[in-house]
Amino acid sequence: MNKNLLILLFGVFLTLGxxxxxxxxxxxSVENNLQFETIGRTDSIPxxxxxxxxxxxxxxxxxxxxxxxxxxxxxxxxxNATSGAMAPTVLxxxxx
Length: 96
Prior knowledge:
By secondary structure, this protein is of the alpha+beta class.
């Protein structure tokens, strides 16, 4: 009796699970207005990038240093902690 009840419950849950599935829609295209800027030197961080506000990491051994310049623009610089290399480009995110 318990075996039949378990089979029935399994069938009900399987049916409900299949009926509740829906296709994931394709993501809409997002306009990318962020600007990358090439910096000339990669042995120091220019003072024009302003005040250091934080650090984050989304990959092993790579950190993103976040700065806020005097007009409020956020500047992100990638730094490889293993090699000590700084990326030749920075991301600028304007604030309005």
